[in-house]
Write a structure and sequence with these properties.
Elements (H helix, E strand, L loop, with lengths): L8 H5 L7 H9 L15 H9 L8 E4 L3 E2 L9 E3 L8 H6 L8 E3 H7 L6 E4 L7 E4 L3 E4 H7 L4 E5 L5 H19 L4 H4 L1 H14 L12 H4 L2 E5 L3
Helix pairs in contact: 2-7, 5-6, 7-9
């Protein structure tokens, strides 16, 4: 989807559910001792607004989104991340209270204006989340740019449409390898994130079901790339 259609509530409501995102979020959280997990109706724009307003987002070293990423390659600031559409505040009431109405869609413009991060990594586990408008000398300007400008050290994002099951497997493997490697000092510590990416790709490629490797094709394991500082 591109253009104004990205902000249409009808378009957001028509997005397919991604069944394994909850499993993915819980698996990622299990890789760390102290995590905040927002799933289902709790994965909402008001919840993230509260964290941004309290400057609490800057306390997280990892920020992981497992949801639809919608890229506007005409107006990059309208690209965004789909959040819960359930129980959103009434826009008229919000306006009367002098608050910005929440529509369940976190845009590049909103991230740039309200977020402050000190995250080592932001992960955008959705389709085409690394893309945006190609601008000469700047590459693709979109979601990844917004998070880097907000203070993230690096962003893990996808170059094309990804499937639910192999993506969940990829993310679970990536964080398992990264946290294991990150405990090691020295040169290995410096390469931890890149090495975790390499191993996660291998794990998805070699994943077997009944003696068959269903995700051996690069389309299933090569979509995600690291943008920004490697570690």
């Amino acid at each position: 989807m591109t253009g104004a259609a990205l902000r249409s509530s009808a378009s957001l409501a028509d997005l397919d559910r991604i069944p394994r995102t909850r499993d993915e979020a819980l698996a990622v959280a299990a890789s760390f001792e102290d995590s905040t997990v927002l799933t289902g109706v709790d994965a909402s724009e008001p919840a993230l607004d509260r964290l941004a307003e309290d400057d609490a987002l800057a306390r997280y070293s990892i920020v992981h989104f497992a949801t639809h990423a919608l890229v506007d390659d005409v107006v990059p600031r309208r690209s965004g991340i789909a959040l819960s559409q359930v129980g959103l505040p009434d826009p008229f009431e919000a306006a009367m209270r002098g608050r910005r109405p929440d529509d369940g869609f976190l845009t590049v413009a909103e991230i740039a204006s309200r977020w402050r991060l000190e995250a080592n990594l932001v992960t955008l586990s959705g389709c085409r989340s690394a893309l945006g408008r190609s601008i000469r000398g700047e590459g693709h300007v979109g979601l990844t740019t917004a998070f880097l400008q907000a203070g993230a050290q690096s962003v893990l994002a996808s170059l094309w449409d990804v499937q639910d099951e192999p993506t969940m497997l990829f993310m679970r493997s990536f964080y398992r390898h990264w946290t294991a490697e990150s405990r090691i000092d020295g040169a290995t510590r410096e390469r931890a994130k890149v090495e975790a990416l390499r191993r996660a790709r291998r794990d998805v490629r070699e994943h077997e079901v009944d003696g068959v490797r269903p995700y051996a094709h690069p389309a299933f394991w090569a979509a995600f790339v690291l943008i920004g500082a490697p570690d």
